[in-house]
Amino acid sequence: MSIAKVGINGYGTIGKRVAAAVSKQDDMQVVGVTKTRPTFEAADAAERGFDIYVPEESLQAFKDAEIKTAGTIHDLFKKADIIVDCTPGDVGEKYKAEYLAAGVKAIFQGGEDHGLAGVSFNSTANYRDSWGAQFSRVVSCNTTGLIRTLCPIDREIRVKNAYVTVVRRAADPGDSKLGPINALEPSVKLPTHHGPDVQSIMPWLNINTMAIKASTTLMHLHTVVAELGRDADTAEVLGILKSAPRVRLVKSKSGIKSTAEIMEYARDLGRDRSDMYEIVVWEDGVKVVGNTLYFYQAVHQESDVVPENVDCIRSMCKLEEDAVTSVEKTDKALGIAKR
Fold first, then answer.
1. Residues involved in catalysis
2. What is the side-by-side strand order in the sheet with 71-72?
3. For residue 212, what are the β-bridge partners?
4. What percent of the chain stands above pLDDT 70?
């Protein structure tokens, strides 16, 4: 079996989760992670046994903090077959040039534009588009959420038009310096980027999006109205969603009325870092009237793209030809069971 040597550039919110997920796969290994400062996350990486690579100018700071380093960032680029770039958005151009110079493959995240890699990735929608590619981009958490639910519905029924409102968390739990306080902030630049981002993978889909930033850190919430290609019924759509990979249906009447209960549910599942990898749809909030579909879904912004990154590694490194097999392998390793 071929083993992909994976480096994680940026051991932060997404990077540390990708590192943990990759380390659970039998066809890939983490050969190192990067940090620029000797923070608690750097200490966590060391405790988990990951080799840490840092910018040359940071070597002394790590030494002073007594956090062992394995070399510089460029040493990691030479060691890895593929880099999962989890650095802050808008620095991708800089790193792309460095990856090219090192001759290493790289996966960018949704904070970068589609044009940076030239191809965007979703596990079940377009797995083969990244086959053997040097660069690819896993789309954002919200885009991943919309594709996970709309793509299987589009395949079975067709989605003519989709109208989505994204109620966005203002900041991740660890980002205490960000976000509105006791306020709702509309995104007045319309349409928001989420629709065009979905179209980077589903270019035929007519989708229109708006967004509101809310003073919560837990999850994003989407309200979706879709005009279908034909009349359908609620049971048919529920059947599609129940069989869709990485979609989890819950019921409000069972006590899961909000994103707070969803995150408590993730804790009860015993997930690493209490992550909810699946897109959560309220089963009793799905309704079809004629050819119009209504539903709500919740997106755990810290983790839903993690399994997509794992599958993208398989596609780019030609480890598994079939998307279904890759998804099943990833989900089994991460404890994502069909329900």
1. 141
2. 71-72, 52-54, 28-34, 4-9, 82-85, 105-108, 135-138, 120-121
3. 167, 186
4. 99
Distance CA 29, CA 98 (A): 22
Strands of 28-183 (E only): list them: 28-34, 52-54, 71-72, 82-85, 105-108, 120-121, 135-138, 159-169
The C-alpha atoms of residue 314 and residue 310 are separated, in whole angstroms, by 7
Q: What is the mean predicted confidence (pLDDT) over 128-155? A: 98
Q: Residue 163 — left, alpha, or beta (φ > 0 → left; ψ -120 to 50 → alpha)?
A: beta
Say if domain 141-299 classifies as CATH 3.30.360.10: yes
The model carries a pTM of 0.96
- The residues with which 223 forms a beta bridge, in sequence order, are 165, 296
Q: What is the pLDDT of residues 176-196, one digit of tens each?
A: 777 777 899 999 999 999 999
CATH superfamily of 4-139+305-334: NAD(P)-binding Rossmann-like Domain (3.40.50.720)
Encoded tokens for 34: 């990067």
